[in-house]
């Protein structure tokens, strides 16, 4: 009961102003059909308690009733998606963002989705796992002609399923450019037990070559890994109250499977991309492997107060802007050759060994710093002569001293390294990429980050976010801040339209 207000807030969250939204999750009720009054009251009460699904950093798609169906409108188009402050990629998505906006309907709904193609090439929309007539399936060439550039296709079907679903382009390389969105079907009869908070997160990955904001969709060395189109520390934390029952829904469309790990809690897997799992299958876990094209629902009682990490546990997926060579290779030589062609840049060796100066990979995956044949570049603020331990004047430290930042008890300049660090084979590993010098608390300030430990952002990258399990006063404070922010007119994240139709 205590959280009923939250449902409305959740519903409004990113879709403020859409009058149709609050009714979204009130499941349809046939009055009097074989129920006595008590049953009906009970039924209505329970159905009202189905929590709307929050998709942090992704908007909800509004709908209207038209000719007996809930009508949605999706525009496939090129978008500019800001992964984190200062890092904008040219992706393809829907209605201005990648992933596209979230659709929520109820089991049994008749749904119509108008899809306009504003891409420069044909596309087709697939409804992943939907048991619908084949001519609505969106398989280009077999179930329909692809939607030509400038064209439109109207999909319409009745949904008898319930669970965590998604929509995506059925053109393979378009998928790798970001073309997916969450599609929640709320069950007619609420799941038992009810949850207080319900979140969905889409997992995506992009390989971005130097000096280029356009992902290389052929490359399998992914160096930008996103939760709902954002990377840590720009991901928006999930906010819950102590003892809330919480559902997290993870959806994966990419080239890798992601072991998603939650700190401080034990959950059970309650659903897959196929729907609800029987309780007999619910064993205790703290990591769920979300395979490609799969969805996983997990549930738990958030009974452990604190700011807990949720992250993919593949180490390379906890990083931003990975370079194909890093610290260890900068030691003991004049540096790494930079600016070779694509094969070297992608770490593909034709001859020689990985660390040879001339045959090894170049800095190709870096931001292009030094990506020129003219100059070799040891990626080292940590070269001994440039960065004495603990103090020193290193590139990047300006970030840590942004106005408004406080690093209580944290080091402000170079990361801590011992005097003899250079003599240790393998150094540096994380010292160059994590820590105070990477902190950007101020740049990613938002209500949901309120009260996090100063300097927190220096340790968040890639597929990382927080589950913040908060006492009531802190929870209310953050909700108040969020309401304040939502009441101000503002540009929605990722809303730059290149082709605004
Ligand atoms: Cu991963």
Write up what this structure looks like.
The chain is mainly β and 501 residues long. 10% of the residues lie in helices and 26% in strands. It has six helices and 21 strands. Strands 10, 11, 13, 15, 16, 17 and 19 form a seven-stranded mixed sheet that branches. Strands 1, 2, 3, 5 and 7 form a five-stranded mixed sheet that branches. Strand 2 and strand 3 form a beta hairpin. It is globular, with a radius of gyration of 24 Å. Bound molecules: copper (II) ion. Copper (II) ion binds at residues 256, 258, 312, 314, 317, 463. Residues 256, 258, 312, 314, 317, 463 line the site of copper (II) ion.
Q: Terminal Cα separation, in Å?
A: 43 Å
What order do the SSEs take from the amino end to the carboxyl end, as H and E? HHEEEEEEEEHEEEEEEEEEEEEHHEH
Broad structural category: mainly beta
Helix content: under 10%
Strand content: 25-35%
Taken from the alpha-carbon principal axes, the silhouette is globular
Instruction: Please tell me the overall pLDDT.
Output: 79
Number of helices: 6
Task: State the total count of DSSP E strands.
Answer: 21
Bound molecule kinds, no repeats: copper (II) ion
Q: What is the CA-based Rg, rounded?
A: 24 Å
Low confidence ranges: 1-35, 42-46, 359-413, 492-501
Largest sheet: 7 strands, mixed
């Amino acid at each position: 009961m205590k959280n009923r207000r939250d449902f409305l807030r959740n519903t409004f969250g990113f879709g403020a102003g859409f009058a149709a939204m609050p009714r979204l999750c009130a499941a349809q009720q046939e009055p009097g059909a074989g129920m006595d009054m008590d049953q009906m009251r009970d039924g209505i009460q329970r159905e009202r308690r189905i929590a709307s699904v929050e998709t942090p950093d992704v908007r909800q798609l509004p709908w209207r009733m038209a000719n007996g169906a809930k009508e949605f409108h999706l525009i496939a188009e090129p978008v500019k998606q800001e992964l984190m402050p200062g890092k904008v990629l040219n992706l393809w998505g829907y209605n201005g963002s990648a992933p596209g906006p979230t659709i929520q309907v109820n089991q049994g709904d008749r749904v119509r989705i108008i899809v306009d193609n504003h891409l420069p090439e044909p596309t087709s929309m697939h409804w992943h796992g939907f048991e619908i007539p084949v001519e609505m399936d969106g398989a280009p060439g077999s179930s329909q002609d692809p939607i030509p550039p400038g064209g439109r296709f109207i999909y319409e079907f009745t949904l008898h399923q319930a669970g965590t679903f998604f929509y995506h382009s059925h053109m393979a390389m378009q998928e790798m450019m970001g073309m997916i969105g969450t599609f929640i079907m709320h069950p007619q009869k609420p799941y038992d037990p009810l949850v207080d908070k319900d979140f969905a997160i889409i997992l995506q990955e992009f390989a971005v070559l130097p000096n280029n904001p356009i992902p290389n969709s052929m490359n399998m060395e992914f160096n930008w890994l996103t939760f709902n189109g954002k990377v840590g520390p720009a991901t928006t934390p999930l906010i819950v109250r102590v003892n809330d029952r919480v559902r997290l829904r993870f959806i994966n469309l990419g080239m890798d499977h992601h072991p998603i790990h939650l700190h401080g809690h034990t959950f059970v897997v309650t659903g897959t991309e196929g729907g609800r799992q029987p309780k007999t299958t619910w064993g205790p876990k703290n990591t769920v492997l979300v395979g490609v094209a799969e969805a996983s629902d997990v549930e738990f009682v958030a009974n452990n107060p604190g700011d807990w990490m949720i992250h993919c546990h593949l180490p390379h997926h906890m990083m931003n802007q990975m370079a194909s060579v890093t610290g260890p290779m900068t030691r003991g030589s004049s540096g790494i050759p930079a600016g070779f062609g694509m094969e070297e840049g992608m770490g593909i060796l034709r001859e020689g060994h990985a660390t040879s100066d001339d045959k090894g990979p170049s800095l190709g995956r870096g931001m292009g710093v030094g990506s020129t044949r003219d100059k070799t570049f040891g990626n080292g603020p940590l070269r001994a002569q440039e960065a004495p331990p603990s103090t020193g004047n290193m590139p990047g430290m300006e970030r840590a001293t942004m106005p408004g930042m406080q690093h209580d008890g944290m080091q402000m300049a170079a990361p801590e390294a011992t005097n003899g660090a250079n003599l240790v084979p393998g150094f540096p590993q994380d010292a160059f990429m994590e820590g105070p010098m990477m902190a950007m608390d101020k740049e990613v300030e938002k209500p949901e980050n309120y009260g996090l430990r100063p300097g927190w952002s220096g340790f968040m990258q890639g597929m990382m976010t927080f589950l913040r399990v908060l006492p009531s006063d802190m929870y209310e404070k953050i909700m108040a801040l969020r309401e304040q922010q939502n009441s101000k007119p503002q540009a929605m994240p990722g809303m730059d339209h290149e082709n605004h139709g």
